[in-house]
Amino acid sequence: MSDFPLIVGFQPLSDNNRNRVKTIKRGKGIYLYDASGKEYIEATSSFWVAALGFQNEELISSIERQYRKLPFLVSGMHRTSDTSIALSEKLATISAIKNPAILFAATGSEANDFLIKVMKYGAFDEGQAVRMKFISRKQSYHGGTLASASLTGGHHSDFGLPLPGFFHVSQPDFHGGRLPGETEEEFCKRLILEVENLIVKEGKESIAAFFAEPVSFSAGLHVPPKNYFKCLKKLLDQHEIDLVADEVVTGFGRTGRMWGSESVDFSSDHATMGKGITSGYFPLSAIAIGESLQERMKEKSRRINSFAHAATYAAHPVGAAAALKTLEIIEREKLLEHAATIGKLLEKELRPLGEHPLIGDVRFHGLAAAVDFRIRDENDELSTEDPIGLCNRINSELIEDGLITRPVNGSLLIAPPLITTSDQILEISEKIKSRLGKLTV
Ligand SMILES: Cc1ncc(COP(=O)(O)O)c(C=O)c1O
Q1: What's the predicted TM-score (pTM) here?
Q2: Cα(249) to centroid(ligand 1), Å
Q3: 336 lines ligand 1 (CB under 6 A)
Q4: CA 408 to CA 218: how far, in whole Å?
Q5: Per the domain annotation, does 362 fall within a domain?
Q6: Number of folded domains that form the chain
Q7: How many CA within 13 A on the CB side of residue 14?
Q8: Which of 75, 118, 225, 328 is least surrounded by CB atoms within 10 angstroms?
Q9: For 19-46, how does the pLDDT look when each residue is reduced to its tens digit (9 = 90+)?
Q10: What is the CATH number of the domain that holds 287?
């Protein structure tokens, strides 16, 4: 029974009550405190967002200063804020996309949605629809709006999705998706062939873009096989299909580099970003649009004398100030290097868990780890045990131990804020090792 009217997502609606939902009252650094005063380490940065932790005074002050200067302004109809322009220039400078145009939005979902929309704007010509189809990967998450939820590789039938024109191919999840005995190279080739077959089936001229996270956090921290993105890009280029890096989670230092795409050698035509851009202190996201699409957009706009798109809170001056300050702190405090260093420490601490008989795989990338409960037997077949149930149970137990982790498709994910110290990494690792040490076959 609900005992408050608030709908909390990613749980059954019947759990909307104070017994099942923790009420968090405050946060400081990497810690959260619930209504009873109990302390939790937020070892997922609250859905991969709070890069600078929960009470960064410098960031809060810069937000307050912007509120006093210009608390709000819509970007549109020949007006925008100086702060919004400054952030677009900063993002263009650090972007992995060459000479990008920057379009702002408020959430990662909107960023993916708006990119699809401007791709359609660039492709829709005098009543003739061309390149209106989109490919993404199963189990991926790209957002909650209709188009981004259609890109998302699951939860479709619950909501009558995907919309027409969205197609999903296999996730580069080598541990869970390989055929028995298949090498990583063979697995990679098979996945690229799957994309090629889909392109041929759907008609290469009809497909606009392929959306992918450089490292699939949303599917369970899958680091792609070595040549996956190189082969994928080559195939897509042959058919003039754009590749989009969804950097909503992997951007701004999570992988130990500014962009996840740099961490896995993945060159894309456009990128979407959000979450860590303001460390979550203000809703803001952005799209870096590559040159060829910009040209098509400009040409269309010249012809019809319009680009009828805006969003009230996109390019919000307070969000822009928060993002500029977040980036300044990340650069000044060398948080990319720090994330890489403490990520290595996390790996050193947790890698031995891979030997546990109930753990099938452990994966690490930047400042992130996954403990995968999907077991393979001596014939390399996936076991029929219930890894998701076990993973969810461990997750609940860890929360009782004061550690917030995230279960994703049978893997337990850990991705603490970029400001986490080495001692705190040891504290996180100890809690996980101690809980998993109690697991018996
Ligand atoms: C990879 C990825 N893309 C997009 C989104 C959507 O972002 P938002 O929740 O800000 O709309 C998410 C959210 O978790 C995500 O993980």
Answers
A1: 0.97
A2: 7
A3: no
A4: 7
A5: yes
A6: 2
A7: 0
A8: 328
A9: 899 999 999 999 999 999 999 999 999 9
A10: 3.40.640.10
Look at residue 275 and give its three-state secondary structure: helix
Contacts of 73 by beta carbon, 8 Å cutoff, 6+ apart: 79, 80, 81, 84, 316, 317
CA of 246 to the centre of ligand 1 (A): 9
- Tokens 């393979």 correspond to 376
Is the residue at 155 inside a domain? yes
- Tell me how far apart the alpha carbons of residues 204 and 292 are, in angstroms, rounded to a whole number: 18
CB atoms within 10 A of CB 441: 5
User: Nearest Cα to 244, choosing from 333, 319, 137?
Assistant: 137
Q: Is the pLDDT of residue 199 over 90?
A: yes
3 state DSSP class of 12: coil
* Mutate which of 114, 116, 134, 142 for ligand 1 pocket (most atoms within 8 A of beta carbon): 142
Which of 142, 121, 137, 272 lies closest to 198, judged by CA?
Answer: 137
Of the residues 304, 332, 360, the one at which a domain ends:
332
Q: Using CA atoms, how far apart are residues 259 and 372, in angstroms rounded to an integer?
A: 25
Q: Are residues 322 and 346 in the same domain?
A: no
Quick check: CB of 276 below 6 Å from ligand 1?
Answer: no
What number of other Cβ atoms are within 10 A of residue 209's Cβ? 24
Question: To which residue do tokens 């005098």 refer?
Answer: 126
Q: Is there a single domain that holds both residue 177 and residue 301?
A: yes
Q: Which domain holds residue 218?
A: 60-332
Measure the CA–CA gap between 435 and 334, rounded to whole angstroms: 33
User: pLDDT tens, 337-391?
Assistant: 999 999 999 999 999 999 999 999 999 999 999 999 999 999 999 987 889 999 9
Give the number of other CB atoms < 10 A from CB of residue 422: 12
